[in-house]
Amino acid sequence: MESHPSGFGPRTQDLLARDGKRVWHPFTQHARWATDEPLVIDRAEGMYLYDADSRAYLDANSSLWVNVHGHKVPEIDAAIVAQLDRLDHATFLGTTHEPGIELAELLIDRAPAGLTRAFFGSDGASSVEAAIKMAFQASAQLGQDRPLYAHIKEGYHGDTLGAVSVGGIELFHSTYRPILLDTVEVSSPGLREPGQSAADRAVEVVTELRELMEHQGQRICAVIVEPMVQAAAGILTHDASFLRGVRELCDEFGAYLIADEIATGLGRTGKQWALDHSGVVPDLLTLGKGVTGGYLPLSAVLAKEGIYEAFLGAPESARTFFHGHSYTANPLCCAAAIANLKLMDANNTVDNAARLGEKLGQLLAPLQTHDGVLEVRRLGTMTGIEVNPVDGIERTGFEICQIMKNNSVLTRPLGDVVVLMPPLAMNDDDLKTIVDVCIAAIDQVTQ
Ligand SMILES: Cc1ncc(COP(=O)(O)O)c(C=O)c1O
Fold first, then answer.
1. Rg (CA), the chain
2. How far, in Å, is the centroid of ligand 1 from the Cα of 447?
3. Ligand 1 atom having least distance to the Cα of 230
4. Are both 113 and 260 inside the same structural domain?
5. Do 195 and 327 belong to one domain?
6. Does the pLDDT at position 431 exceed 60?
């Protein structure tokens, strides 16, 4: 892969100048925006993104963990165009439409057994909001007083206030603590003492949760977890026994279990759901990101029938779930999701993702003993390479990603964790390019 000369062409420079005057980007320190040399992405095809100077970049983080089959996928393009010909949008409040119905059926068909209802949201965070409100309202309507949520240190569930309330990443969440919901937190099962096994750590955190539940379990309406991988924390992985322990405690103390599969679901961990590594069935499951193949914003909460039934009653009972959005179940988003899920089935994408993940593990093996690397964490295709911060370099992870970018591979770090999360349909050659470029960049920065 050819290395890019530095410097941007006139169109890129013009766009960046206009951007610099008017745009505010998410998770971006704008004091550094210009010197960080952001790319202007102009088009995409297959596994490649192209900048406004026509330079190609392999999409090594699936455009922030959403892309599945690559870009410009003929089947998804055609489905969106066909839907556009028929119905652009109609509200899902009080009316319904075929794409919404079909997508709910497809999701429930592949959901863990026992989840029978799909409630649509837009971005991932909006499905988390819906799930936490559902858990509280359902328990209230079943006659219980449970105003608390339990969540996990280092957890991340999105950036709206409810989702932030059940998050546990200091840097992102501590600023907002004074304005958040009442919650209780247990330690992360993914943060182990040196030499401690993942199974021992799971026992430790489940014990901590038991103590908490013994004190406050009757007041907790839900425990929320990211199954198997705490992604935004830096791809922290944990033992499946942790999830089984949490499920047992939820059953014992009458709390709902919310599994946030927004990042992990639909193949990213090499199985349909990360929960499938554990055999656990949650009461509520949130999904988003890759459900539309990475094309359009759509998320969903999948719920057990009993939770749905807790909302039934006469209109004046106020048992309605008073929650929704203007664009809930937008037909274009649903059409993209239907096409994506059908293509995943036709191409055995989840099995291929498991194989791709194994291949990724083999290619990354040299980093296990690399002096500059603290730990390589991976489940399926979700990979975090934690590097040692280098003296004299302000942002080691960022520097590595900048070098990767100059060598045609695009990803984004989480602090000093370099994240690789290729589209599930990537081939071995492209995967090898990504890993070769990544290892070379780590060598360059850390040696
Ligand atoms: C586990 C998890 N939940 C929720 C979200 C929020 O999703 P969105 O960014 O689409 O709102 C994310 C995003 O990374 C996530 O990883």
1. 22
2. 34
3. 1
4. yes
5. yes
6. yes
Final residue in a domain of this structure, among 346, 377, 400: 346
For residue 359, what is the domain's CATH number? 3.90.1150.10
β-sheet with 409-410: strand ranges across: 41-45, 48-51, 56-59, 409-410
Q: Are 87 and 122 contained in the same domain?
A: yes
CB 280 within 8 A of CB 286: no
Q: What are 20-31's pLDDT values in tens digits? A: 999 999 999 999
Is the per-residue pLDDT at 4 higher than 80?
no
- Residues 112-133 have a mean pLDDT of 98
Closest C-alpha residue for ligand 1 atom 16? 263
Nearest-angstrom CA–CA distance, 156 and 166: 8
The count of structural domains within the chain is: 2
Q: Ligand 1 center to residue 65 CA distance, Å? A: 9
Q: Taking residues 307-315, report their average pLDDT.
A: 97
Please give the C-alpha separations between residue 197 and each of 45, 131, 202, in angstroms, as whole numbers: 42, 32, 9
Q: Which of 27, 258, 289 is the pocket-test mutation for ligand 1 (most atoms within 8 Å of CB)?
A: 289
- Ligand 1, pocket-test mutation among 132, 152, 157, 325, most atoms within 8 A of CB: 157
In a domain, 2, yes or no: no
Identify the pLDDT of residue 447: 87
Q: Residues lining ligand 1, judged by CB closer than 6 Å? A: 123-125, 128, 156-158, 226, 231-232, 260, 262-263, 288
Distance between CA atoms of 101 and 107, rounded to whole angstroms? 10
> What is the best residue among 129, 262, 325 to mutate for testing ligand 1's pocket, by most ligand atoms within 8 Å of CB?
262
Percent of the chain scored above 90 by pLDDT? Answer: 98
Query: In the numeric block, which tokens belong to residue 152?
Result: 């996990």
Taking only the tens place, the pLDDT of each residue in 32-65 is: 998 999 999 999 999 999 999 999 999 999 999 9
Residue 117 structural domain: 74-346
Q: What is the pLDDT of residues 221-252, one digit of tens each?
A: 999 999 999 999 999 999 999 999 999 999 99
Q: Whose CA is nearest to atom 6 of ligand 1?
A: 158
276 and 377 assigned to the same domain: no
Q: How confident is the model at residue 7, as a pLDDT?
A: 84
CA 356/CA 347 separation, integer angstroms: 14
Distance 392 CA to ligand 1 centre (A): 32
pLDDT at 326: 97
